[in-house]
Amino acid sequence: MQIREIIMLAVYAVMFIGMVVSFVIALVKYIKKYKAAKTIAEQEAALNDMKEAAQGFIADAEKLYEN
């Protein structure tokens, strides 16, 4: 394995770990928001936020996988 390949793998690994960590942080935030919700509308808003965060993570992962 050449040094260039090792560096590229390390960069992709760091990017992937960063995406996962940011997704988990956002997900935890929205779960807390969901648990703190007092009305059904607030719960639905929190669920929609979670869905959008998941869709964003999937889109980022697809872009990373394409490379």
Label this structure with key terms.
elongated; mainly alpha; 67 residues
Provide a compact summary of the structure:
This protein is an all-alpha fold and 67 residues long. The protein is built from 2 helices and no strands.
Beta strands, count? 0
Number of helices: 2
Cα-atom Rg, whole angstroms? 16 Å
Strand count, sense and barrel status of the largest sheet are: none
- How far the N terminus sits from the C terminus, by CA atoms, comes to 19 Å
The amount of helix comes to over 70%
- Would you list the SSEs in sequence order as H and E? HH
The coarse silhouette is elongated
Structural class: mainly alpha
pLDDT below 50 for ≥5 consecutive residues: which ranges? none
Strand percent estimate: under 5%
What is the assembly state of the chains in this entry?
single chain
What is the arithmetic mean of pLDDT?
A: 87
What does this structure look like?
- By secondary structure, the chain is mainly alpha-helical.
- 91% of the residues lie in helices and 0% in strands.
- It has helices spanning 3-36, 40-66.
- Helix 1 packs antiparallel against helix 2 (40-66).
- The radius of gyration is 16 Å and the shape is elongated.
- The chain starts with a helix and ends with a helix.
- The relative contact order is 0.13.
